[in-house]
Amino acid sequence: MKLVRYGPPGKEKPGLIDEQGVLRDLSRKIPDVNGATLSPTTLSALRKIDVRRLPVVKGRPRLGPCVATPQKFLAIGLNFIDHAKETGSPIPEHPILFYKTPNCLVGPNDNIMQPKDSKALDYEVELALVIGRTARYVDEKDALRYVAGFCICNDVSERDFQLKQGSQWSKGKGCDTFGPLGPWLVTTDELRDSGNLDMWLDVNGERRQTGSTRTMIFNVAQLVADTSRYVTLVPGDVITTGTPPGVALGMKPPKWLQPGDVVTLGIEGLGEQRQRVVPFKNRR
């Protein structure tokens, strides 16, 4: 299944993309696409629905982040061997875990807001996984059973905040709008091989990133197992798994994002995103 959330920010409804690519309303079946509805039991019940009986959503409504209000938004750094090499970093012996913040979450086609005093705004196309059942000290051989599905994340980063202000990654990863998620959540029954997906990202039509999840250092099962040793994962939690080469940080000189730039990105089987960079504006 391809599960979506559509509508104005804060008022999204749950939906489903059928085999013909038509958006259908799910609000009479589930209240939202969130931790409470991503359990194996609920997903199994949704698969039994006659999709043809679901109301068609007319027009082209905004798509929100494909998961509502995750308790945790976790991320893995330097998890692609070719990306680690382009940044001059050693190959990690263990997954590098850091935190993004739930306020990062925006829809897949919403604007990216450049933070105040930003000097080095960057992009990262990433495969994200969403947890479907509580995971604590999970064995690697069982880890995929705890995943509800996969989606695209743009792990937007401010490198000056991240690397030059105390080397605290979350400073440069947790700003508002720094986690576009979607367009949809593809459940694991529809996307079985997360380790062989092509990935790409363009800025203003120029190809910047070309890669594949084949070059991940730690695969999805390893990441879930390792993360569950340190953090109890609960349904709805998001883990974004690293990026292939081509980020602005690895360029000489870097080509940082600027207001007006348009970023488009995609992953095989998971759709595409499109964001415009806009200058800082107080959201209160």
Strand order of the largest sheet: 3-2-1-13-10-9-16-4-5
CATH homology group: Fumarylacetoacetase-like, C-terminal domain
Radius of gyration (CA) equals 18 Å
Overall body shape: globular
Largest sheet: 9 strands, mixed
Number of helices: 5
What is the CATH topology classification name?
A: Fumarylacetoacetate hydrolase, domain 2
User: Can you tell me the number of structural domains?
Assistant: 1
End-to-end Cα distance, whole Å, is 36 Å
Please identify the top-level CATH class.
Answer: Alpha Beta
Quick structural gist:
Helix content is 13%, strand content 29%.
Question: How would you characterize this protein structure?
Answer:
This protein is an alpha+beta fold. Helix content is 13%, strand content 29%. The protein has 5 helices and 18 strands. The protein has a 9-stranded mixed β-sheet. A 5-stranded mixed β-sheet has the order 7-18-17-14-15, with no helix packed on it. A hairpin with a 3-residue loop joins β17 (262-267) and β18. The radius of gyration is 18 Å and the shape is globular. The mean pLDDT is 95.
